[in-house]
Each structure stands twice: as C-alpha cells, then as structure tokens.
Amino acid sequence: MKMLTYLASCLMAASGAGALMLGALKASRITVGAFDFNYNGLQVTKYNKSTTVQCATRVLANVNATPVFCVTSAQECWLTNATFPAGYDNSSAAGALPHKCYTTIKPLFDKAAALAACGGNPSGCCPAPFENVTNVGCVFTSFWFFPMLPFDVARAFCKGMWPTGDLYSRPGGTIDFTALNTYLDRMGVVLDVWVGATMVGVGQFAWPDGSAVGSSNYGSVLIVPQPDLTGFPAGGPAGCLLVMRTYGNQKLGDDYCIKPVNYLCHIP
Ligand SMILES: *[C@@H]1O[C@H](CO)[C@@H](O)[C@H](O)[C@H]1NC(C)=O
Ligand SMILES: *[C@@H]1O[C@H](CO)[C@@H](O)[C@H](O)[C@H]1NC(C)=O
Ligand SMILES: *[C@@H]1O[C@H](CO)[C@@H](O)[C@H](O)[C@H]1NC(C)=O
Ligand SMILES: *[C@@H]1O[C@H](CO)[C@@H](O)[C@H](O)[C@H]1NC(C)=O
Question: Sorting pLDDT into bands at 50, 70 and 90, what band is 184?
C-alpha cells in the first residue's frame, strides 16, 4: 500500500552472522555477488596486495564511509561504502565473488556465541539483540542498522540470524498491535515492516506454518479495508503483508513483495 524505490527481488540465503575480530576491527563475514558492487553507484576503492588484517586496518581510517571490505583472490583490498548487513549472503546468485568480504555494520550479532550460551539448543532462547517483548514474543528489528529489503531477502536475513528465526508470525491469534507498535516505536522504526505472511489464494494470507491470518489482524488505509489486493501505487498482485505504519492504521495490510521496507525478525 505504499511506495518506495524498487531494489531487487532476488532471493538470497542469509547464513552465518558471526562476528570476528580482524586486528582492532570487529566485523562479520558476508558473501557478495559481482552485481552487488555495481548498483547504486557504490564507491569501491582498491589497494594492492594486502592481508585481511591489513585491509581491515585501512577500514579503521574511515569506518563510517567504508563499512564493507573485501580481500580478493588476487589479494587486493577493496573498501566500499556499501551497506550490507551482518549475515548478508548472496552466494546463491549467479556471479558470486570468490573474495573474502566483511561488514562492520552493526549489530554484529555473534550467532555462534549466542548458540553456545543457549546450550546449543536454539529453542526457548531469546538472545540479544532479540528481545522477549510481552505479548509480542522474541523479536528484533532495527531501522538504523538494517537496510530496507524486499520480502524474500528480508525473510532470508531473519532466517540467517538464528536456526529457528523467521519474519514475525502469530499463528492462530490476533497480534497485540499496541504492544507491537510500542516496540517498533521504541526501536525507531517509523515505517512499514514486513511480517512473515504470504498470499495463498486470492486475498487469503497464511503464516509460515500454513495457518490462515485471522481477519482481526487486518487494518485499513483510510476507508479501504485490507487486504485490498493492491499495493501503492496501485497494481498487482500484492502478495505479502506488512504492518502499515505509514499510511494505514498500524495493523496489517498487503503490499508488493518486491518493495524494500523494514522487517521484524522473530524467534518463535
Ligand atoms: C544478488 O546478486 C544478484 C545477481 O548478481 C543481484 O541481482 C541481486 O540484486 C543481488 N542482491 C540480492 C539482495 O539478491
Ligand atoms: C557511495 O559513494 C558514491 C560516490 O561518492 C555515491 O554516489 C553513492 O551514493 C554512495 N553510496 C552509499 C550507499 O553511500
Ligand atoms: C598495484 O599494482 C599494479 C600492478 O602491479 C601497479 O601498476 C599499480 O601501480 C599498483 N597500485 C598501487 C596503488 O600501488
Ligand atoms: C518470554 O517471556 C514470557 C513471559 O512474558 C515467558 O513465558 C517466556 O518463556 C519467555 N520466552 C523466552 C524465550 O525467554
């Protein structure tokens, strides 16, 4: 139901999001495709022959302007102003680069350490930066640190954060929108956020476990009840659900899955 720029609709698989120290720099390994550096006019500064730690040291000179760096197979050091989050993994895309790439963009969620703290059992744990929010569940979002993403990519990103992670879902119930919107406000997320429901029939949406999204979860945009089978601007089909923070009444509405928006990750 609302408009933002088209980014990309390719599915990516977000995997390991562990943080590591490279010299004095804390960074997370990411896997990028060749195309990732060619869109949005990213600036890529290249240096000759460097080890990973030497390359990381160059980043320290201007970490805000060059949060992502790579050491190529030819041992070149590439510094870029890209904003790929920890856990970014585009290895399934054609043209994946064989380079060792890292991001310093926070949160540098140390998944391995968090799993160890959960005794290796990912169920029943709510590791930081996830938060066990009353009447909402174990969730995490960040307007500040996460780039807006199309639905599929956002979903892969949430799945990559934790073995049982996914976009937010509330099978068989009504979402407590007061509690949920209070959490989103507190996290500074003022725009729409994807939740984990997709269209399974015309105007019918289901959570990842296959259960139907209860009608009490839907909001409206002015007087137009949701889902209205369209996004903004009008067109179709609008196959994914989001919390309508921008134009709706802060409940669920449908929108185009390819639209990059914020998203709510969840450990059910
Ligand atoms: C991944 O790589 C593909 C192909 O190189 C590209 O089209 C896409 O935009 C990249 N990013 C994501 C998030 O899929
Ligand atoms: C990266 O730098 C280039 C050149 O200065 C600029 O055009 C581009 O918008 C920047 N991208 C980001 C994501 O900051
Ligand atoms: C990098 O190496 C190439 C080829 O050896 C050389 O021509 C170039 O001047 C070097 N660049 C820098 C910045 O040292
Ligand atoms: C979250 O908090 C609720 C109580 O509000 C508790 O019952 C539940 O076990 C907690 N879940 C986790 C994963 O900590």
Answer: very high
Ligand 2 atom nearest 65 alpha carbon: 14
User: Strand 265-267 to strand 204-206: parallel, antiparallel, or no bridges (unpaired)?
Assistant: unpaired
List of domains in the chain: 19-103 (3.50.4), 112-267 (3.10.100.10)
Q: Distance between CA 39 and CA 154 in Å, rounded? A: 19
Pick the residue whose CA is nearest to atom 4 on ligand 1.
93
Q: Which of 89, 133, 129 is nearest to 113 (CA)?
A: 129
Is there a cis peptide before residue 127, judged by omega within 30 degrees of 0?
no
Please tell me the distance from the alpha carbon of residue 3 to that of residue 229, in angstroms, as a whole number: 15
Residue of minimum CA distance from atom 14 in ligand 1: 10
pTM of this structure: 0.62
* Three-state helix/strand/coil letters over 135-190: CCEEEECCCCCCCCECHHHHHHHHHHHCCCCEECCCCCCCCCHHHHHHHHHHCCCC
Residue among 7, 36, 40 to mutate when testing ligand 2 (max atoms within 8 A of CB)? 40
Residues 195-216 have a mean pLDDT of: 95
To test the pocket of ligand 2, the residue of 5, 32, 43 to mutate (highest count of ligand atoms within 8 Å of its CB) is: 43
Question: Which single residue is written with the structure tokens 């990750």?
Answer: 265
For the cut 50, the answer to whether the pLDDT of residue 204 exceeds it is yes
Mean per-residue pLDDT over the chain, rounded: 84
Point out the ligand nearest to the CA of residue 48: 3
Q: How far is the CA of 214 from the centre of ligand 1 (A)?
A: 34
